[in-house]
Amino acid sequence: MHNVINWFEIPSTDFDRAVNFYSTVLATEFHKSEFMGEPQAIFSNDLQGVGGAIVKSDRLTPSATGALIYLNLGTVENLKQALERVESSGGKICMSTTDIGDPGFIGLILDTEGNSIGLHAPKPTE
Questions:
Q1: Domain that holds residue 97
Q2: pTM for the predicted model, two decimal places
Q3: With bands split at pLDDT 50, 70 and 90, how would you rate the model's confidence at 64?
Q4: Does residue 126 form part of some domain?
Q5: Bridge pairing between strands 51-55 and 7-11
Q6: Does any domain span residue 75?
Q7: How many domains does one find in the chain?
Q8: Which residues are CB-neighbours of 89 under 8 A, at least 6 positions away?
Q9: pLDDT in tens, 26-54
Q10: What Cα–Cα distance (Å) separates residue 113 from each residue in 17, 46, 82, 84, 105?
Q11: Pair 125, 21: CB distance under 8 Å
Q12: pLDDT tens digits, residue range 70-113?
């Protein structure tokens, strides 16, 4: 089965601040470009799964009450480390690392733009 979602966009009011926040929290780099005259910072991925970007666009407004996406952090350790960097990067932790059973572990944050974002790590395989 294909992924239900193939692309997501995280809206920003201050594009550079948002890119710096996610770069620091997720310990990753982004590919910056423009699409249809709007800046975007594309999450690195292997082109096999879901892709996405941080965007600054008049058609999108940051919100803590809209759709909630969960970013895959890969491991529980990565999830915990990301949460440790949230507040010092200007965000807020809404839920610390929480065991949700078979699906793994989650945490919830509010980013610098006011978006509610989930962080997920699958259960380790034994």
A1: 7-121
A2: 0.91
A3: very high
A4: no
A5: parallel
A6: yes
A7: 1
A8: 20, 21, 24, 25, 112
A9: 999 999 999 999 999 999 876 567 889 99
A10: 8, 27, 17, 18, 24
A11: no
A12: 999 999 999 999 999 999 999 999 999 999 999 999 999 999 99
What pLDDT is stored for residue 28 in this prediction?
93
DSSP at 122: P
In this structure, is residue 33 part of a structural domain?
yes
Q: What are phi and psi of 102, to 5 degrees?
A: -55, -35
Q: What contacts 69, CB < 8 A, 6 or more positions away?
A: 5, 8, 10, 52, 117, 118
The set of residues, in sequence order, having a beta carbon less than 8 Å from that of 33 and lying 6+ positions away, is 39, 40, 42
Is residue 1 domain-resident?
no
Q: Is 90 left (phi over 0), alpha (psi -120 to 50) or beta?
A: left
DSSP string, 51-89: EEEEE--TT----SSS---EEE-SSHHHHHHHHHHHGGG
Give the end-to-end CA distance of the chain in Å, rounded to a whole number.
Answer: 24
Looking up residue 77, the CATH number of its domain turns out to be 3.10.180.10
